[in-house]
Amino acid sequence: MAFEAPFYRWRPHPWHGLDPGPDPPHVVHAFIELTPFDLIKFEVDKVTGYLRADRPQRSSSQPPTLYGFVPQTYCGRRVSELSPRATKGDGDPLDICVLTERPISRAEIIVNARVVGGLQAVDRDEADDKIIAVLVNDNIWSDTKDVTDLPPAIIERMQHYFSTYKMTPDQQSVISIEAIYGVEHALKVVAASLEDYDEDFGR
């Protein structure tokens, strides 16, 4: 029996086995690990590709958007060079937040997302950028071109969440948000992460 390409007889690894998207760096695939309904921090296991329950959230904050990563990206040297306070990349795929009008309550899905901006997050000394994107063909957000087109409250919510989601009551946050950037810089970050992936893993 013949199958149409691409066909995966076995489940592809979501980081290495899926492609980055239909038109990267502008329109990318986002593999979703977390939804706004999750109170457990889920992360893709780098060996198996399955979703692992990493830790319960310590604070009362909930993820403000769909949250995951762009396949075949890597935060390495090129990504860190775009983040002045970072000395290296965090060694993970590039994180992405995806805005949708309709609530999506399930993870381990793939969405097409158009890049509009990002948060320049630094975790200790590592570049840990959070790309901001909108769901392609969304009824409300699809016309968004740049992060400046979004309501300030949404950006503030994302900024607060990522500034505090690793905090414990007896410690200061290890993450700082150094800047909120628009689509032009965001495209450079995505492109850099694709090049970092090519250098470390090839295609």
Give the secondary structure arrangement, pairings included.
Layout: E1 27-34, E2 40-44, E3 51-56, E4 66-69, H1 77-81, E5 88-89, E6 95-99, E7 110-123, E8 126-127, E9 130-135, H2 152-164, E10 175-182, H3 183-201
Parallel strand pairs: 5-8, 6-9
Antiparallel strand pairs: 1-4, 1-7, 2-3, 4-6, 7-8, 7-9, 7-10
Characterise the protein shown here.
The longest helix has 19 residues, at 183-201. The protein is an alpha+beta fold and 203 residues long. Strands 1-4-6-9-7 form a five-stranded mixed β-barrel. Strands 2-3 form a two-stranded antiparallel ribbon. It has helices at residues 77-81, 152-164, 183-201, and strands at 27-34, 40-44, 51-56, 66-69, 88-89, 95-99, 110-123, 126-127, 130-135, 175-182. The model has no long low-confidence stretch (mean pLDDT 92).
Which descriptors would you attach to this protein?
3 helices; 203 residues; 10 strands; alpha+beta; Inorganic Pyrophosphatase; five-stranded mixed beta barrel; two-stranded antiparallel ribbon
- Low confidence ranges: none
- Give the CATH architecture: Alpha-Beta Complex
How many runs of DSSP E, i.e. beta strands?
10
Over the alpha carbons, how many angstroms does the gyration radius reach? 16 Å
Biggest sheet, open or closed, and with what strands and sense? 5 strands, mixed, barrel
CATH topology: Inorganic Pyrophosphatase
The number of distinct helices, counting runs of at least 4 residues, comes to: 3
* Share of residues in strands: 25-35%
Count of all domains: 1
- Elements, N to C (H/E): EEEEHEEEEEHEH
What top-tier CATH class fits best?
Alpha Beta
Tell me roughly what share of residues is in helical segments: 10-25%
User: How far do the termini sit from each other?
Assistant: 27 Å
Query: Would you tell me the overall average pLDDT?
Result: 92
CATH superfamily: Inorganic pyrophosphatase
Q: Provide the spatial order of strands within the biggest beta sheet.
A: 1-4-6-9-7
Please state the structural category. Answer: alpha+beta
What is the 3D shape?
A: globular
